C-alpha cells in the first residue's frame, strides 16, 4: 500500500511538473541521497527545475519511502504501476505475495555467497523476495543480486530497493536479448562500526560483470545435452 503522505507530496509536485517527470526526478533525488551527495550526474538538473520548497518536498518523499520499506516492501514499484506506467509496455509487476511464493519454492536452499539474476527486473521484486527468503534463516547475510532491464527507470527503482535493503549486486541498464549494455549500478557494502552500509558506483557502457556472467552461463547451457532442460533462480 502506498503511504498517503507520499501521494500528497507527490501530487503537490505533479500539478506543476507532471507526474511522470516528478517520478523520474524523485528517483534521481533518491540516488543522490543514497550516494551521500556524490552521484550528481542525473541529479544536476533538479536544482534548475525545482525551487527550494519543492526540493524539501522531494527529501520528505525519500524519508517516507524509507520509513515504509521495512520488510523488503516495494513502495516505489507500486507508485510506478498505479500512477506512471498504467501497464504501458506490459509493465505490471508480479504481486509481492506471488514473488515471495516463487522465491520460497525456488530459493529454498539458497545460501550466503550465492547469487541470483532477474533478466527483466522491473522494480526488483523478485530479487527482494530472494533476499527475504534467505533472511528467514540467515537474517544478517545477503546474497549477490544481479538484475537487468531495458527501461532505465526500472533499473533505478531496483537499485534503490537493493540499496535500502543493503543488498550487494549489479543492476544493469541493457538489452537482455542482445546483451547491449548502457549503464550499471554496482552495489557494495562497506562495514562501519559493525554495521554494513550500502554504497554504489555507476559503471558506463561496456563496464559490467553481469554480461560476462550471462555469456558464460549461455556457454554452459549450450554444452548441455539437447534433451536436458535446466530452470533455476540461482545464477
Structure description:
With 235 residues, the protein is α/β, with parallel strands linked by helices. The chain has 2 domains: 4-68, no CATH class; 101-222, Rossmann fold (3-Layer(aba) Sandwich). The protein is built from 9 helices and 5 strands. It has helices spanning 4-17, 19-34, 46-49, 52-67, 75-85, 96-106, 125-135, 152-164, 210-222; strands at residues 115-118, 144-149, 169-175, 180-192, 195-204. A 5-stranded mixed sheet has the order 1-2-3-4-5. Helix 2 (19-34) packs across helix 8. The radius of gyration is 18 Å and the shape is globular. The model is unreliable at 225-235 (pLDDT under 50).
* Mean of pLDDT: 88
Number of individual domains: 2
- CATH class categorisation of the largest domain: Alpha Beta
CATH topology assignment of the largest domain: Rossmann fold
Shape: globular
Strand order of the largest sheet: 1-2-3-4-5
The assigned CATH architecture of the largest domain is 3-Layer(aba) Sandwich
The arrangement of helices and strands along the chain is HHHHHHEHEHEEEH
Low-pLDDT windows of residues = 225-235
Helix/strand-derived class?
alpha/beta
Task: Please report the number of helical segments.
Answer: 9
The percentage of residues in β strands lies in 15-25%
The largest pleated sheet is described as: 5 strands, mixed
Number of strands: 5
Radius of gyration: 18 Å
The separation of the N and C termini measures 31 Å
Estimate percent helicity: 40-55%
Amino acid at each position: 500500500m502506498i503511504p498517503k503522505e507520499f501521494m500528497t507530496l507527490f501530487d503537490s509536485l505533479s500539478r506543476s511538473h507532471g507526474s511522470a517527470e516528478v517520478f523520474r526526478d524523485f528517483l534521481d533525488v533518491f540516488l543522490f541521497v543514497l550516494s551521500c551527495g556524490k552521484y550528481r550526474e542525473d541529479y544536476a538538473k533538479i536544482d534548475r527545475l525545482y525551487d527550494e520548497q519543492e526540493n524539501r518536498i522531494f527529501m520528505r518523499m525519500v524519508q517516507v519511502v524509507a520509513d515504509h520499506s521495512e520488510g523488503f516492501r516495494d513502495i516505489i514499484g507500486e507508485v510506478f504501476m498505479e500512477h506512471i506506467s498504467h501497464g504501458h509496455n506490459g509493465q505490471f509487476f508480479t504481486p509481492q505475495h506471488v514473488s515471495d511464493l516463487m522465491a520460497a519454492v525456488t530459493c529454498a536452499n539458497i545460501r550466503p555467497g550465492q547469487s541470483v539474476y532477474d533478466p527483466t527486473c522491473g522494480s526488483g521484486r523478485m530479487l527482494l523476495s530472494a533476499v527475504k527468503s534467505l533472511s528467514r534463516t540467515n537474517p544478517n547475510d545477503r546474497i549477490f543480486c544481479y538484475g537487468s532491464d531495458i527501461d532505465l527507470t526500472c533499473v533505478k527503482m531496483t537499485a534503490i530497493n537493493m540499496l535500502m535493503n543493503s543488498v550487494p549486486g549489479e543492476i544493469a541498464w541493457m538489452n537482455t536479448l542482445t546483451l547491449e549494455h548502457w549503464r550499471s549500478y554496482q552495489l557494495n557494502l562497506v562495514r562501519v562500526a559493525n554495521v554494513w552500509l550500502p554504497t554504489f558506483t555507476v559503471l558506463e557502457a561496456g563496464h559490467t560483470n553481469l554480461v560476462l556472467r550471462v555469456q558464460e552461463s549461455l556457454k554452459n547451457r549450450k554444452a548441455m545435452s539437447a534433451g536436458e532442460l535446466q530452470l533455476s533462480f540461482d545464477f
